[in-house]
Amino acid sequence: xxxxxxxxxxxxxxxxxxxxxxxxxxxxxxxxxxxxxxxxxxxxxxxxxxxxxxxxxxxxxxxxxxxxxxxxxxxxxxxxxxxxxxxxxxxxxxxxxxxxxxxxxxxxxxxxxxxxxxxxxxxxxxxxxxxxxxxxxxxxxxxxxxxxxxxxxxxxxxxxxxxxxxxxxxxxxxxxxxxxxxxxxxxxxxxxxxxxxxxxxxxxxxxxxxxxxxxxxxxxxxxxxxxxxxxxxxxxxxxxxxxxxxxxxxxxxxxxxxxxxxxxxxxxxxxxxxxxxxxxxxxxxxxxxxxxxxxxxxxxxxxxxxxxxxxxxxxxxxxx
Length: 320
Fold this sequence. Notes:
mainly alpha; three-stranded antiparallel beta sheet; 15 helices; 52% helix; globular
């Protein structure tokens, strides 16, 4: 998959420039990128046949905005405990939050639990093959549905994560970075670059993603290792510096996210309900602490109990 991933699943109206010879460019890119992938792809557990569609889906949830090195141990433990969707669905959602550990963005754990429940109830416990059925699962957007259909079932879909978008921006559009949010033009370009047959298209999706993760990286692209450097529009233009909107950075220290993480860490370690007084010790600033705790409750990650106690959620959230 990818060293880090941010999925932007809301189409934007912003248009980016598109090459006039997309068909020619796409055919020239496919073979060298796929050949490079065959030689240099990392041996990741979700790429192995035994992972199955469920293993692929779990990895896609975990890899969003999280590096592979952090995902690997949690992924292995997760699949050992819950090898099928029904195994996870049978547990309280709070157990998914507990097992998520410090991967960050813990709402992903609740969404994965919700998807497991839906798969169990609607599809007999098997991850569905059809893109529309995947998209209909709770917590799954366009990116994840396309990724599971492509990587698990070998189907032809445009799989656009941040790494792929960056590869396409540089090789085809000639700019250093893609827009902050995925545009309609990027989606059209990704579809235009897809190989015609399913097998090659699925391989292309994985290969272009890996190229962005290992070679065409955000901060230090290694053009000497790139199999399509001679075709890259950005390199051929002299690697012009990014002149679009400032790229969004991520901060953590001192944010509500950090406070939420500290509160959740206490609740994950607890074997029973946690009194408010214990949670009050994790952060000195009372207003921010209260705001973070209220947010966790609102997101369904924490359940308030009588007597000022809190715990991880034991009940499924009500369907919308």
